[in-house]
Write a structure and sequence with these properties.
3 domains; 391 residues; transmembrane; alpha+beta; transmembrane helix; five-stranded mixed sheet; Heat Shock Protein 90; ATP-binding
């Protein structure tokens, strides 16, 4: 959207000059060019307005006016000249870089409005360049079909890649279960032997038993996490759901997290108002928090500065989680791709499935996650979970 905004803001005045003075066309319209430029200009700042509800309808209107409407109108007024026939094709190609439904609606309404304006401007139906138009329509239909097929192909490739990840995850889980089971048996044997030691060694025995108990708890958690990850990779809706308190899940996830470095968990602060339950899976939510924490700590290590602040608050219908780190931040270009499967930043780090996994989990509960960032200052994730309201 931002790139199309730049293209339209520069392209319309530039081509007014080209078609008026360099390669003069029979018809040009300065006021229409200025209108299109003005409509495209706000799209340059679409990243800043990404959370605004008015942006999608405005973008549809601006792009419809600036591409199919303007280009088809100029095509008709220039009697279907070759230059404008090719320009219409270029407009269609640009348009179908957006969603298929978005592009089709824009193309139909924009073209119809252009024909209506052409007739209202004093032209008769016989003034429509029918021969050129009938030659153009099959070409445009073919281009649209090709673009839709390319999109479907990309979607299918992405699905195949995701299925491959699910298969690989299931294989890794299978390989992990054997050493984990062996470790669990070792802990059981260790506890049995410790319980037979003499009373003189009671304090040592107690501390070792406590350590073994923590290891058992962690092993149980890891085994459960593996089962959940495998199930979620196949179908996010298959994980068992029950009411849980997100604040408690956050505290549990951070308590388990293996913090390292000079500051450890001291760089994390949690601010919470009164709690409220949501419907989902507490352990999967802990994995979401763990992933966000891991990403934030990596950013802090790269920047050599920063902390993590988690804020929880409740409104009448949702529980809001604000997860913010004050490390490197990311550029708008990176921010756009943040939740794309297999996209990682920096490019050499990780598999790129962490944030996509987080969004998939949350969406399966009717929750959302979004991200905002200022480069070199902060990155902030906002999770909105539908709360369970007592009746």
């Amino acid at each position: 959207m931002q790139l199309v905004g730049a293209l339209g803001s520069v392209g319309h005045p530039l081509y007014y000059y080209i078609w008026s003075y360099v390669f003069p066309q029979p018809y040009e319209n300065l006021w229409l060019r200025l209108l299109c430029t003005a409509l495209f200009a706000p799209l340059l700042f679409s990243n800043r307005f990404s959370q605004k509800k008015w942006l999608p309808p405005y973008a549809l209107f601006a792009i419809t006016v600036g591409l199919p409407f303007a280009f088809v109108f100029f095509y008709l007024e220039n009697s279907g000249s070759l230059a404008w026939a090719e320009s219409v094709i270029i407009a269609v190609i640009i348009l179908y870089h957006f969603g298929t439904a978005f592009a089709t609606i824009s193309l139909i309404f924009g073209s119809t409005a252009a024909v209506v304006l052409f007739l209202l401007a004093g032209n008769s139906v016989t003034g429509v360049p029918w021969e050129s138009l009938l030659l153009q329509l099959p070409i445009i239909a073919f281009i649209v079909a090709v673009l839709v097929v390319i999109k479907l192909d990309r979607h299918l490739l992405l699905e195949q890649k995701q299925r491959g990840v699910a298969t690989a995850l299931a294989t890794v889980a299978h390989e992990l279960r054997t050493p984990l089971a062996s470790l669990a048996m070792t802990i059981t044997g260790l506890k049995a032997r410790l319980s037979r030691l003499t009373q003189d060694e009671a304090s040592l025995v107690d501390s070792l038993l406590q350590a073994a108990g923590r290891m058992e708890s962690d092993l149980t958690h890891v085994n459960n996490s593996i089962e959940l990850l495998v199930a979620n990779s196949k179908d996010p809706h298959s994980a068992e759901r029950e009411p849980f308190d997100p604040e408690l899940a956050i505290r549990s996830a951070l308590a388990r997290f293996p913090f390292t470095g000079d500051h450890g968990s001291a760089i994390v602060s949690i601010e919470a108002t009164h709690s409220a339950n949501v419907l989902g899976n507490a352990q999967l939510f802990e994995l979401v928090v763990t992933n966000l924490t891991k990403n934030a700590l990596e950013a802090i290590n790269r920047a050599g500065k920063g902390d993590i602040r988690v804020r929880c608050y409740v409104d009448h219908s949702r529980v809001h989680i604000i997860f913010r780190d004050t490390a490197t931040g990311v550029s708008p270009l990176i921010l756009e791709k943040m939740f794309q499967p297999f996209f990682s930043y920096p490019s050499h780090r990780g598999t790129g499935i962490g944030l996509a996994f987080c969004r998939s989990v949350l969406h399966s509960w009717g929750a959302t996650i979004s991200c905002s960032s200022v480069e070199h200052e902060f990155t902030e994730f906002h999770i909105r979970l539908p709360r369970i309201v007592a009746t």
